Amino acid sequence: MSLKNKCVVVTGGSRGLGLGLVEALVDEGAKVWVVARNTGDLEKVRIRLGVETVSADITDASAANSILSDVHPQVLVLNAGAVPRMARLDCTSWEDFTATWDTDVKGGLYWMQAALNLPLAPGSRVLVSSSGAAEQGSPMSGGYGGAKRMLWLMAKYANGLSEQKGLDIRFQAIVPRQMVAGTGVGGAGSSAYALAMGIEQEAFLERYPAMPPRQFGNHVVRVLTDATYETALAIGIRGDTGITVLEEQAA
């Protein structure tokens, strides 16, 4: 699959991990729409990369429906999410524990529903941002690991509905298995775990190097353009080892 002139919507694409992906997509010749809340960040991306931008909250169901109805993307990347509130299980509030459920999972539900109910065109692909925490947990980040596992499961559920409805829309979970540098999640996680280990954040990152956002973006572009990954349900990404199929679609 070539991405040249393909319409791609990326939520949370104005900074960090999402911006790395947007840069990679633009270099492939895709026509990119970036959805985020911060108008200042959006304007910087629009000027530098020549993309279209939309200011919206991913947890607004009407925005999801409106944007997908207007743009009709062939690829939708659900990347936006909240930075988890870092604390040990015995020291966290319910509000902090569920923050990523209220943003990541809620937003994922609305955008996946919009993709199924509009629906997107046959052959469209929806990439849902999960996390390595969905595999092994993340004891300092509250309900983050569970939220990211739920998004993985929701992609699986959405595929079943796409098949039942004869839509030919493929949903795939993208699972970064390494912290990503320069992101809110990566910064919060590396800081909290360094503190728990009694070392400086710089020492933690030397021990557990982070993946550059652009490297992540390059790997996702390969997922979209290499037929090897076309039918996978969950795809793991690391900067050092590249791409791994974690779960195939059910036959």
Strand order of the largest sheet: 3-2-1-4-5-6-7-8
What number of domains?
A: 1
Number of strands: 8
Give the uncertain stretches in residue-range form: none
| Element order: H for helix, E for strand | EHEHEHEHHEHHEHHHEE
* Helical residues, percent: 40-55%
Protein name: SDR family oxidoreductase
Keywords: Oxidoreductase
Pfam family, one: adh_short
Organism: Rhizobium calliandrae
Written overview of the protein:
The chain has 251 residues and is of the alpha/beta class. The protein has helices spanning 16-27, 39-49, 61-71, 94-97, 99-117, 133-136, 144-165, 184-197, 201-207, 213-225, and strands at 7-11, 31-36, 52-55, 75-78, 125-129, 170-176, 232-238, 242-248. It has one domain (7-177, 212-246): Rossmann fold, CATH 3.40.50. 47% of the residues lie in helices and 18% in strands. Strand 2, helix 2 and strand 3 (52-55) form a beta-alpha-beta unit. It is globular. The chain starts with 6 loop residues before the first strand and ends with a strand. 46% of the residues are buried. Keywords: Oxidoreductase. This is SDR family oxidoreductase. Belongs to the short-chain dehydrogenases/reductases (SDR) family.
TL;DR of this structure?
It comes from Rhizobium calliandrae. It contains 10 helices and 8 strands.
Features:
251 residues; Rossmann fold
